[in-house]
Design a protein that fits this description.
By secondary structure, this protein is of the alpha+beta class. β5 and β6 form a beta hairpin. The N and C termini lie far apart (112 Å). The chain has two domains: 212 residues, Alpha Horseshoe (Serine Threonine Protein Phosphatase 5, Tetratricopeptide repeat), CATH 1.25.40; 139 residues, Nucleic acid-binding proteins (OB fold (Dihydrolipoamide Acetyltransferase, E2P)), CATH 2.40.50. A five-stranded mixed beta barrel has the order 4-5-6-8-7. A two-stranded antiparallel ribbon has the order 1-2. The N terminus is likely disordered. The protein contains 18 helices and nine strands.
């Protein structure tokens, strides 16, 4: 286009038209980036306004800040000049405007995706357009997207990843932009593409694929708290609790450079971590170490795990089984305890244990063994408590009608092992305690007791 003196004014107008467009999501935590044609490419293309009215139509779009009003201005420009030399730039204004409206008006989301598809026909590797599809495609499709939308997002994401090096080459950095900002723009774009692929994989029930994409996204952009939260949710649903807890810990506390999860979101994630960690692990032991690791890394280190209550129960059960195999007397003791602490404990005691001599030689077992924990009272003791299953926790009581002789007490000291056999007299279920009346202790001479009335087990 020329002025009244015949001077070319394309360069001036294009520089005005091609100013940097900042693509900002309606979602506060979504990062934004800038994509603009290089000055060299602009000059080579030599686009031109068809007339002054078209330039005025563009100027109105450029100067209109209200998204709804700008959308009307864009439509007016497009209706009058459908074949403008500036269609590519106009499409980007459309995408920017639809994106600003889509957060509160869902009807704008499909229009954005349709416009993005039109934009790609002319510029298949436009990073800004590809980014918009990766951002708004999953939001539009939700949990039940159409096959067409899945294909659109999948194609855009893969194209954005494969073309990112070229799209964000140093030579294409916007004038006045910093190297750091341009590098961050690339990071945000590639991470968003992997997030879109994770969504696509989840919608196809490919959870392993979704895990891989989330890991790639967090590797590219570790500062992305929302992705840590989404990844944690996926892992939790897969019952991969240690890794899920790590991701919630990350989402709940990362607030460093580039943090994109708002404070309320971080607190929600941290509250979930604190509650679930204790429920899963059984206590807060080790929680601070997990939080410290997650604060400096978006992904757990190799070999990371958190033991669960079930893990502890399994370990305890294995120890019990190993001990039963090596110690038949303990095996009998544990069998009796299991019956007495079950639902039918009192009935079992009355019919099988009360007044029975234990172990009574069953399976060749002549005595039980345990650690002496108390000898009471100090003056003329008549009661000894013994820890059989756990040497620090009493589960057997030896009651004597007559005081234990002083000579016998030299062999019955707290902290020493004792072997015994006796007649079961009573029990309590919780805490578990089995009481023997006037038991025999091999090698120890006790005061004579009344004649025993018992039955063999």
């Amino acid at each position: 286009m020329k002025n009244s003196s015949g001077e070319v004014i394309v360069d001036f107008c294009f520089r005005r038209a091609g100013r940097i467009i900042l693509i900002a999501s309606a979602l506060a935590f979504v990062p934004s980036f800038v994509v603009v044609p290089s000055a060299k490419a602009q000059a080579a293309a030599q686009p031109n306004w068809k007339d002054r009215d078209e330039y005025d139509a563009f100027t109105k779009v450029q100067q209109t800040t209200d998204p709804k009003a700008r959308l009307e201005a864009l439509k007016a420009w497009e209706d009058k000049y459908p074949t403008s030399d500036f269609i590519g730039m106009r499409n980007q204004y459309y995408l920017d405007t639809y994106s600003k409206l889509a957060g509160t008006d869902p009807s704008m989301r499909q229009k954005l995706l349709d416009k993005a598809q039109d934009s790609l026909k002319a510029d298949p590797k436009n990073a800004n357009t590809l980014y918009m599809i990766c951002l708004w495609g999953p939001i539009t499709g939700g949990a039940s997207p159409s096959a067409d939308l899945q294909a659109q997002v999948d194609s855009a994401a893969h194209t954005l990843i494969s073309s990112a090096d070229d799209a964000f080459a140093a030579s294409k950095k916007p004038q006045g932009g910093t190297d750091e900002a341009w590098a961050n723009a690339k990071k945000s774009a590639v991470a968003r593409a992997h997030q879109a692929l994770a969504w696509d994989a989840i919608s196809k029930k490919d959870l392993a694929g979704a895990e891989g994409e989330y890991r790639e996204s967090l590797t590219v952009n570790p500062e992305d708290g929302p992705t840590s939260s989404q990844f944690g949710k996926l892992l939790f649903e897969e019952k991969k609790y240690p890794e899920a807890l790590f991701e919630y810990a990350r989402a709940g506390q990362y607030s460093g450079p580039g943090a994109s999860l708002p404070p309320a979101g971080r607190q929600t994630a941290l509250d979930f971590f604190n509650k679930t960690y204790k429920n899963f692990h059984g206590s807060d032991d080790g929680k601070d170490q997990v939080l410290a690791q997650a604060k400096t890394s978006a992904l757990p280190p190799a070999g990371f795990t958190i033991s669960s209550l079930q893990d502890a129960a399994n370990a305890d059960a294995q120890k019990i089984n190993d001990r039963i195999k090596s110690d038949p007397a303990f095996g009998l003791w544990y069998s009796v305890k299991t019956q007495l602490t079950g639902d039918g404990g009192p009935a079992y005691f009355a019919s099988n244990v009360k007044d029975a001599e234990l172990p009574g030689g069953a399976n060749g077992i002549k005595t039980f063994s345990g650690m002496i924990l108390t000898v009471e009272p100090a003056d003329k003791p008549t009661r000894i408590t013994v820890g059989i299953e756990d040497p620090t926790k009493a589960d057997a009581t030896l009651l004597f009608t007559n005081a234990i002789p002083a000579a016998a007490l030299t062999k019955l000291k707290v902290g020493e092992k004792v072997d015994f056999t006796g007649v079961a007299d009573s029990f309590t279920k919780d805490p578990y305690m089995l009481t023997f009346k006037d038991p025999d202790i091999p090698g120890v001479v006790l005061a004579p007791a009344p004649p025993k009335q018992h039955k063999k087990r």
